[in-house]
Design brief:
- The protein is built from eight helices and four strands, in the order βαβαββαααααα.
- With 205 residues, it is of the alpha+beta class.
- The chain has two domains: 79 residues, Glutaredoxin; 99 residues, Up-down Bundle (Glutathione S-transferase Yfyf (Class Pi), Chain A, domain 2), CATH 1.20.1050.10.
- The two termini are 24 Å apart.
């Protein structure tokens, strides 16, 4: 049995971590949950993630939840895969910025745009500021390429890339040439292709 177990549903945010695991190249097990059947709310799973959502990752006796936290954890636990920026490297600051920019800025900006409030919130109340600024900042970051930190692909690309792929797929973010070119580069990665094919099989089952 693999030491790594992903509590997973397809499609869902846990697909982000499946891609990360495929990039890692380490063996892992899948514990599949049916969200439509409410299995994520069963007591045995709530003992793993009290939020009742996926993903959750078990590594030995350690449990990590939240996709960006899991990706950061895996990148540091398995440095041979070169998916992190090590301590002491000046790029580690920007690396962490992008790891957490995804869930703290891109996702809420997109969701607020897709499901607007009855009354628009004041900019200062929103952690991401405003949608257009978020999109401009990300576009500027991915334009030079090939990846967020230059030539090295990292866990930050898994997080930001997953959200841009999802946003483009459902027309929730603008189809800017910077985004489309970046996502096209990511989709050439064998690990992403494997993760996508595996999840398509699960979704069809």
């Amino acid at each position: 049995m693999a030491k790594l177990t992903l509590y997973h549903a397809a499609p869902s945010r846990s697909s982000i971590v499946r891609w990360m695991l495929e990039e890692l190249g380490e063996p892992y097990d899948i514990h599949l949950l049916s969200l439509s059947k409410g299995e994520q709310l069963a007591p045995d799973y709530l003992a793993i993630n009290p939020m009742g959502k996926v993903p959750a990752l078990k590594h030995g006796d350690t449990v990590v939840t939240e996709a960006a936290a899991i990706c950061a954890y895996l990148a540091d636990e398995f440095p041979h895969a070169r998916l992190n920026i090590p301590v002491g490297d000046p790029r580690r600051g920007p690396y962490f910025k992008w790891l957490f920019f995804g869930p703290s800025c891109i996702e809420p900006a997109v969701i607020d745009r897709a499901a607007p409030r009855k009354e628009e919130a004041r900019r200062g109340m929103l952690g991401y500021g405003d949608f257009d600024t978020v999109m401009d900042v990300v576009a500027k970051a991915v334009e030079p390429g090939p990846y967020l930190l230059g030539e090295q692909f990292t866990a930050a690309d898994v997080i930001i890339g997953s959200q841009l792929r999802w946003g483009l797929m459902f027309s929730l973010i603008p189809k800017r040439p910077e985004f489309e070119a970046y996502v096209a580069r990511l989709e050439q990665r064998p690990a992403l292709q494997r993760a996508t094919a595996l999840d398509q099989e699960l979704a069809a089952a």
